[in-house]
C-alpha cells in the first residue's frame, strides 16, 4: 500500500446470489426444491480506486450500479468475491439509518453502544457525550427509547456519533438526504470542518450539489465499472447529460409507441370537454403538463397548451447556451374583456429560481385577453448555463390574482459544447491582465 493512500481498492469484483423464492425451512427445501434456484448477479465487475489521506471523494451513478456495495466493502461489512481492499486507520460509517441502534434502549444508551462499536473506550465516550448530544439537538429526547424517534431524529443521533469518534475515514451513504433543512446545512458545515482537519471522506449521493460542495474528486460508477472520474463539476455534468439523453430517448420511444397505438384506432373520439361550454370540466393536469406540474387559479383565462420552440420555430427540449428560446402559450378566455397579465418563470432542477418576467413588469400595463389567443415570449441568446430547467407559466389579474398558474408545466435542458463557466447564467466579460485584454476563445 502506498504511503500517501489510506484506501486502496484493487480490481474488486462482487457477486450476489439472487434467489427466486428461497425456502426457509427444511420442509420447504425438501418439498419445493425449485424454490432454491438462484442466479448470480455481478454488482461490481472490477473497480480500482486509490484515495489519499484527507481527500473527499464522491461516488455517483444510477441505482444498482454498485456505489453502496463499494462503501460496504471498504467498511468490511462484506468482503469482495475477487480483488483486494486495504484500509489504513479508524473507519466511521453512516451506511444505513440507525444501524447498530437498539430500539428499546434510550438515545443516551445507544450513544455508548454505537461509539464503542467504532472503537471508543467508555472514558472517551464520557468526554464526548455532551458534544454528541448538543450537536444532535436531542437534549429533551435523549433518555427516551429510540423506537419513539422519527427518521430525522435517528439521523441526527447517528450522524452526531459518527463525527465525534475522531475517525481517520468517514463513509456516508445518502444519509444526509434525511432531516430538516437547517440540520442538513449544519451537517455540511461540520463535514467541511472535518475535511479541513484531515479526515478522509467518501460519500455516496444522488445530489450533485452535495458532491460539488464537499468533494475534491468524483467517481462515476456504471454497470459495476468506473466510467469516469475527475473534477466533480465536470463528471457531474457529463453524468447528468447522459441521464437526460436517456430520459429523452425513453420519452421519444413512448411517444412513437403512443402514436402507433393511436394510428391503429379507426374511430376518432370527440369528447364533450372539447367544446367551449364544457372546457372547465377538463382535468386539472391536461396532457401538455409535465409530471411535476402544479396548477391553481379560477380558470377565467385558461391555458390550453404550451410549446417551447427554437429559433427555427421547431418544438425542442434541448438548447445550447446562447440559442434563442421561444415560449408559446395558447389560451382561452371564458369571459369577455378580461384584463390579463401573462407571466413566465424559469427554475433550475435544484430549486434555484433563475428568471421571471411578465407583461405588466415590462410594459407597466396589462392586456385584454381575446376569446382565444396565443402569447409568446422570445428569449434571445439565452445565457443559461448547462443544466435541467423547469418552466412556469401564468395568467393573472392586474393585482396578481391567478386565473391560471402552472408551475413546472414543462422542462427543458441547456447544453454547451464546452464547459468554461459555472453557475446559473453566462455573463459577458473580458479579462484584463496588466492592461492586456484576454478575449474569450471561440469553440
From TrEMBL:
Q: Which residues form a coiled coil?
A: none
Give the matching SUPFAM superfamilies.
P-loop containing nucleoside triphosphate hydrolases
Q: Which UniProt keywords apply?
A: ATP-binding, Nucleotide-binding, Transport
Q: Name one GO molecular function term.
A: ATP binding
Q: Which domain of life is it from?
A: Bacteria
Give all residue intervals belonging to the ABC transporter domain. 26-248
InterPro entries, from UniProt? AAA+_ATPase, ABC_transporter-like_ATP-bd, ABC_transpr_TagH-like, Bact_Polysacc_Export_ATP-bd, P-loop_NTPase, Wzt_C
Pfam annotation, one family: ABC_tran
Concerning its family, UniProt says:
Belongs to the ABC transporter superfamily.
Report the protein name in the record.
ABC transporter ATP-binding protein
